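Technical annex, item 7. During the second reporting period the consortium partners agreed on a shared format for inverse folding records so that results from different sites could be compared directly. Each record opens with the tokenized structure and is followed by the designed sequence. A conforming record, contributed by the partner at site C, is shown below for reference.
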């Protein structure tokens, strides 16, 4: 049974790569596009189900632009959070260089910061402010 779950997870990862190639590559959709977000949310929710993670949401995620601050405990927090809301993640810059994961994170709109680099922190701060401002200006915009 465990081997079947691993094979299903590997197939699902390949599905995610294919979806990203189609949406971000062929159709040139950005991580802010509604269809891209729906596909990402579905894909990450399926990752949680394949790993037998049961998610319980108390309350309702905000309908407006929100800044969520979460110091995650493990990599599992990423699919859990992103299967419930459409976040823009902030990650250490080294992740961008990881094979496959870095590419997927980049295409998903992750912001990357060089730890200990003041200029990098200022640039990311500016990008976050712009993202939050864009969300406030667009009535009915999805939370990012």
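Designed sequence (site C submission):
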């Amino acid at each position: 049974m465990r081997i079947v779950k691993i094979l299903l997870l590997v197939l699902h990862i390949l599905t995610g790569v294919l979806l990203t190639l189609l949406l971000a590559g062929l159709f040139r959709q950005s991580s802010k596009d509604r269809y891209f977000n729906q596909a990402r949310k579905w894909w990450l929710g399926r990752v949680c189900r394949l790993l037998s993670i049961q998610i319980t949401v108390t309350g309702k995620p905000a309908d407006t632009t929100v800044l969520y601050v979460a110091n995650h405990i493990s990599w599992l927090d990423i699919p859990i959070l992103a299967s419930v809301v459409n976040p823009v993640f902030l990650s250490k810059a080294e992740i961008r260089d990881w094979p496959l994961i870095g590419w997927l994170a980049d295409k998903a709109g992750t912001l990357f910061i060089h730890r200990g680099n003041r200029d990098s922190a200022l640039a990311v701060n500016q990008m976050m402010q712009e993202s939050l401002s864009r969300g406030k200006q667009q009535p009915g915009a999805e939370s990012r």
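The beta strands are 90-92, 111-113. The chain is about 50% helix and 5% strand. All partners now use this format for quarterly exchanges.
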